[in-house]
Amino acid sequence: MQHRTRPQTKARTAVIIGGGVAGPVAAMALRMAGIEATVYEAHEPGSGSRGGPLSVAPNGRAALGLVGADDILTELATPTRRMVIRSYTGKILAEIPEPPGQAPRLTLPRGQLSAELQRLAAAEGIELVHGKRFVDATDTGRSVIARFDDHTTAEADVLIGCDGIRSAVRAVVDPRAPGPRYTGLVSFGGYVDGTGVPDTAGAQYFMFGRRAFFGYQVEGDECAWFANLPVKGLASGGLEATGYEHWIEALRTAFARDNGPALEILDRVTPEKFIPAHKLEDLPHTPVWSRGRAVLVGDAAHATSPSSGQGASLAAESAIELARCLRDLPIDQAFRAYHRNRRERVERIIAIAARTNQAKAAGPIAARIRDLVLPIIMGRFNTPERTAWQYDYRINWEEVA
Ligand SMILES: Cc1cc2nc3c(=O)[nH]c(=O)nc-3n(C[C@H](O)[C@H](O)[C@H](O)COP(=O)(O)OP(=O)(O)OC[C@H]3O[C@@H](n4cnc5c(N)ncnc54)[C@H](O)[C@@H]3O)c2cc1C
User: Fold this and answer.
1) Residue 372 gets which letter from DSSP?
2) Which of 188, 311, 327, 382 is the most exposed place for a label (fewest CB within 10 A)?
3) What pLDDT shows up at residue 374?
4) Whose CA is closest to 375, among 37, 91, 2, 60?
5) Whole-angstrom Cα distance, residue 236 to residue 371?
6) Domain ranges of the chain
7) Of 353, 378, 311, 306, nearest in space to 85 by CA
8) DSSP states along 64-88
9) Are 204 and 77 in contact (CB under 8 A)?
10) What is the largest CA-CA distance in the chain?
């Protein structure tokens, strides 16, 4: 992208690439800031699967609440009031009660979160254009022109890349930007019923198995589950060749000797209910978040692996913080302030998730040490006081950036 002059004016219009979480939230927050945005999404509406379970943390709920999305999610999602972590023997390693004074985490299908945010943005009159895959952009010095793979274009004062961990806008901002890092884990998950596993009464259970990590929550008859399986040698692709039969067998083998309901739950996963495996990846450090009139938000700038349970929450926070900065500052200053205000927080959470991934992929000796040490660490560090910086975080929308 060419960049001739430094933009010094405030933005009035925005082209947003990506309609996942950050995109619709940014569009709604920008509207509150008096900036008109159009969202361009590569996929057609409803073309994705419902998705496996995703949890929105209290800080993410607060961010979504600023754009009026929290009430809708509360109606749709399952509250997670308590978390229980066990070892493969069934021994409880840690119990994390609902933080006092906090709204509970909300768990809902990943695809449903995006669909609801898109619906809410559209209801507010924000234009969402589907089937538009961004490929490139030109900074004219006075505006930015985005180009799509159908040879159409869109022009605005700023280009906001909310296009996820494999962002195409990132290459426009910095052609040398690092790409996603494979964590060594492959993730599975979905929703099944009829498992026979009793309602967990608002608790989510996690198990460090002998060979893999398992999580589930049952509400009524419906069970939300996920599993993280260590798989070596996937750094450069390789998931596409394997499907349901292969992975279900791999998961059944991994959990065969563990004490917990993983096998009963996996028994209910049919080929129709099987959601293709995801390589768990993160983006620990993206050195450049903006250039000229283009900026990155959400996973495009700072993807944490799902082990933090914070990716969507951080995407929503960043989208709102960017809108706040663009509301109050000329474009280049706004981008700098946004970067300054967000970087430390997101990178700290990404690093914590990376350590959790190591614990999930521990070998037999490391696993024994983990199971001895984890209760001590959780008791000391997973207190409401120690985790307040993550969950109590609030963007002060009223404050001038
Ligand atoms: C298996 C799994 C489990 C997860 N669990 C959790 C969890 O429990 N809690 C949590 O907070 N987070 C979780 N996450 C992470 C969370 O999904 C992301 O952090 C969050 O969705 C990031 O939002 P985003 O808007 O930045 O990106 P995305 O939600 O990825 O949205 C990007 C959008 O951009 C579109 N797009 C991509 N390229 C283009 C292009 N060239 N042109 C136009 N559009 C494009 C995509 O189609 C997509 O709709 C999980 C992720 C995975 C993979």
Assistant:
1) H
2) 382
3) 83
4) 91
5) 32
6) 13-78+105-180+282-359
7) 378
8) HHHTT-HHHHHHHSEEE-EEEEEET
9) no
10) 64
Q: What is the pLDDT of residues 198-254, one digit of tens each?
A: 999 999 999 999 999 999 999 999 999 999 999 987 755 567 667 888 899 999 999
Given this model, what pLDDT does residue 3 score?
52
Q: What angle do CA 110, 115, 118 make, to 5 degrees?
A: 130
Q: What angle do CA 131, 133, 342 make, to 5 degrees?
A: 115
φ, ψ at 95 (rounded to 5°): -125, 125
Tell me if 26 CB under 6 Å of ligand 1. no
308 lines ligand 1 (CB under 6 A): no
DSSP assignments along 91-109, one per residue: -EEEEEPPPTTPPPEEEEE
- Burial of 221-260, coded b for 16+ CB within 10 Å and e otherwise, reads eebbbbbbbbbeebeeeeeeeeebeebbebbeebbeebeb
Are 191 and 221 spatial neighbours (Cβ–Cβ below 8 Å)?
A: no
Phi, psi of 316 (to 5 degrees): -65, -45
Cα 240 from Cα 142, distance rounded (Å):
43
List, for residues 163-188, the tens digit of each pLDDT value. Answer: 999 999 999 999 999 999 999 999 99
User: By C-alpha distance, which of 38, 18, 60 is closest to 300?
Assistant: 18
CA angle 19, 24, 27 (to 5 degrees): 125
Q: By the 8 A CB rule, do 160 and 36 touch?
A: no
Cα(220) to centroid(ligand 1), Å: 28
Q: Is 64's pLDDT higher than 90?
A: yes
At 171 the three-state DSSP class reads helix
Helix (H) or strand (E) holding 128: strand 127-130
**Nearest atom within ligand 1 for CA of residue 309:** 9
Of 16, 21, 172, 182, the one to substitute when testing ligand 1's pocket (max ligand atoms within 8 A of C-beta) is 21
Topology given in CATH for the domain delimited by 13-78+105-180+282-359 = FAD/NAD(P)-binding domain (3.50.50)
Pocket mutation for ligand 1, best pick of 40, 41, 133, 169 (most atoms within 8 Å of C-beta): 41
Give the residue ranges of DSSP H helices in 124-175.
169-173
Full-model pTM: 0.95
Q: Which of 4-8, 31-35, 274-278, 394-398 has the lowest mean pLDDT?
A: 4-8
Q: Tokens 């706040």 map to which residue?
A: 324
